[in-house]
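Aim 2 progress update. The chain analyzed this quarter is reproduced below.
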Amino acid sequence: MNDPFGNDLPLLEQIQAVAAAVVPVVRAFRAEIGAERADAVAAEGLAQWRRALARATADRVVGEPREKWEKVAGDALEKVAGSVDIADLQQTPAELRFTVTGCRLADLFRQLGEAEIGYALLCAYDHTLVEELAPGDVELKRTGTIMRGAPACDFHYRFKGGDGQR
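Predicted structure tokens:
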């Protein structure tokens, strides 16, 4: 059997394996300590995991903060390519904009009825990467995600010094 967390599997299959482990644990905690408390603990635990993962990634990538973010973001876009549909890609020295119009990862967690776990595990990681890899050099604004019920995920990255602003 392949390692379910190995890089040889498509991202969606990796996330399905993670969901198969995380979702029952959170549900068991909800039954024991209540939904509000269990969800808060899960959100904090996943936030700690995201930060640790982003820091480890930052330590592996060489360069200035913006260069690190560009490398990691480029790798991430390649990795999610089969799991999301991207439209309206626009890039200038000052910003990067694109829209995710379809997301099989969000579909998975929404079908499980666990969109908030999916958001804490996946969507929030976009902000965590910016915070850990390039704070002050890269800014992400997003008004909605498919995971949380928006029709699309709008990504707007702004870069310090790209236009003399920020």
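The chain has one domain: 11-159. The longest strand covers residues 95-103. These observations will guide the mutagenesis experiments scheduled for the next reporting period.
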